[in-house]
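Dear U.,

For the methods section draft, I wanted the exact inputs and outputs in one place so we can describe them consistently. I've listed the two proteins in the order they'll appear in the manuscript figures. Please don't edit the token lines directly; just add comments below if something needs changing.

First protein:
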Amino acid sequence: MSFSQRFTDIHLDVLKEVGNIGAAHAATALSKLLNKKVDMHVPAVRLVEFDEVMELAGGAEKEVVSVFLRIEGEAPGSMFFILSPEQGEEFVERMTGMKTDVFNPDDEMAVSALQELGNILSGSYLTALSDFTHLDLHPSVPSLTLDMVGAILSFGLIELSQVSDQAIVIDTSLTDTEHSDAEAIKGHFFLFPDPNSYDPLFKALGVQSHD
């Protein structure tokens, strides 16, 4: 049975619900951090082809802001949260009240704000996933990268290609409720479990590992 056949719509719905639980926890943490109401939700969880992974992030040569972390524990893997530079700068401005340049490595405030965003989002999502699956999952310290999409994602795709030609994409939307006319900040989580992590994940989600 192929990777995509093993993940049914029901299981994707479960992952979407897990994502929304994680987003709710992240929104609470961000609201406290920013001292204003923040809403987050997960519009969709999808399986996408590798070519689509690059396109969703803006194309292989598109410069992006990426927060990367390793998932450690019983189902290790890699997770990337990717924002366009414009979206990254919008978040930092809302967080700090200051205009920033996220591609300026000397802008310590921008780097710190985006690392904190990645830390909150990834920690909240993995906590929700761990609670649901009863697997021991925890994130490494997130690292911030400013680079082209192809360079950032190539390692994860190479690893995942051993077992699949698709990846799990978790859409994320963040809204500042004090500015209802402001555009939502949208990013993508790209989840790449290690090859030996699929069986425990499938088992925890109730998916048969073999034909």
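Second protein (the one for the lower panel):
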Amino acid sequence: MPDGLKSRLITALAGSGAYVIADETTAELALGEPRRIAPFAAHAEQEHHQDAILTVGSLGKTVWGGLRVGWIRAAPELIGRLEASRRIGDLGTGVWEQVLALHALEQYDGILAERTQQLTSRHRALVAGLAEHLPEWRPSPAVGGVCVWVDIGERASSRLSRAAAELDLHLPPGPRFGSPGTFERFVRLPFSAPEATLDKALQRLAQAWNGGAGSAGAGRAAPAAFTEAVI
């Protein structure tokens, strides 16, 4: 989102009394070169509007999926209310996880650089695999994160998801990420898995597509199925 649009959005929402939750859990995962980002609240043109913004981050996306430690950046008064509310639901994050998180933050720049190199390679493999196995699909351009949206050319995302599941490939349909009936032309493909796994998943996805999930390519021979589960 362009910086100017962020400023206008904050002014409109905070000015009307709404809270803004900015999910930046993957914002630091860049493709190409590591980059620093300014928090969403930094784009508030009026300082008091920052009090209406909650910025969410997590080491579970930038460092390792098993490290379920995140944070919320917000106004002190709001943080106090959230902290009091959390005590009702659980006893807090485990000490061992917090120790691991502290060590990760001490090496954070190096971890981000390594993740950038890793994800750049895997994104390149995903795009190349789509061109080979599903050339009629159109992936969206990406500069970061861990997934891309792909236009599959027809409203067949839910049917494709069911066909893929029969091949032990678990792919949420596009409408899962929006209101009912939306995004049926799209699938959301992650590129966080190793390159070899991505290629096998794409072969299986092409088999699901050509075997009846959609009409495109129905006459082509399907690739062989794989027995191991892929994500």
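Candidate sentences for the figure legend, describing the second protein: Residues 108-133 form the longest helix (26 residues). Helices lie at 3-15, 59-62, 76-89, 95-106, 108-133, 157-166, 195-213.

Thanks,
Y.
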